[in-house]
Amino acid sequence: MIDGLKGLRLWPNNTRRNQITPTDHSSSLFLRSFLLALRPVEVIDRIFEFIFPSTSEMLARLTARRLQEIRHVFCRPCTLQLDSRSFSTALNYHLDSPDNNPDLPWEFTNVNKEKAKEILSHYPSNYKQSAVIPLLDLAQQQHGGWLPVSAMNAVAKVVEVAPIRVYEVATFYSMFNRTKVGKYHLLVCGTTPCMIRGSRDIEAALLKHLGVKRNEVTKDSLFSVGEMECMGCCVNAPMITVADYSNGSEGYTYNYYEDVTPERVVEIVEMLKRGEKLPPGTQNPKRIRSGPEGGNTTLLTDPKPPPCRDLDAC
Length: 314
Description:
The protein has helices at about 25-35, 40-50, 55-80, 110-120, 130-140, 150-160, 165-170, 190-195, 200-210, 260-275; strands spanning about 185-190, 225-230, 240-245, 255-260, 280. The chain has a 5-stranded mixed β-sheet with strand order 2-1-3-4-5, with helices on one face. Helix content is about 35%, strand content about 10%. Strand 4, helix 10 and strand 5 (about 280) form a beta-alpha-beta unit. By secondary structure, it is α/β, with parallel strands linked by helices. The chain is globular and about 85 Å long.
């Protein structure tokens, strides 16, 4: 490969080798395309020794090593273990593992096959692909809160599309988890109103109490903690969501708990451990739904009807 470079014109005829500038497009484009491969340091050293004069050998070697370091930085995600990747925020790639590869059999249960038929009935027969999101959600519920690639392939067969079309959806929406989660998947709202109201302290309390990092699963497989963007109840910030996969798709629930404190979220975890079910919504006993503490101070009576028309006659 290196010997082949000698027959190539890497710079214009009127330019010496030590006068290559960024404006020499023929040389810069060739070098860019050739060095994108970024082979081991020894090969790069030989390339620079040929291109640059011997007086620049030390600089060339330093540059070569720096390019190799950059290569390792960009390749680093490929060498990470699956357990260290975040769930729905992971880079959009898949690495086969013993419990997540396309060769593993996966299909809907008989009960969920009927649910899938009911979901498909909501869409025209020539638009089955419109059911991808609810079918993926059903598959995730069945599989304990996450989607293996074999489940995505099964959904692709149901809606009669290429698997890549399903992968595009599963990797786009953050509520689809592509690595294992706990039976109780706790999501802390991280958007500005909740953050101002202390969501970081709530997440820290959960992680410390459970002894895990974000997106890790506890040793008993009961809990995992993640972050989610706006949950849509900023007036009751801060808040968390509990996705309950402990009873499969039949008993699946997804509830919001608002006005939480670091102490209250620890109590919620302990209640879930004991199998207790707490009412969703505000956890502030002084509030009713999204009303102010202590009750309303305005709108204390039914508003007067508009004088311009008779509502009962409509």
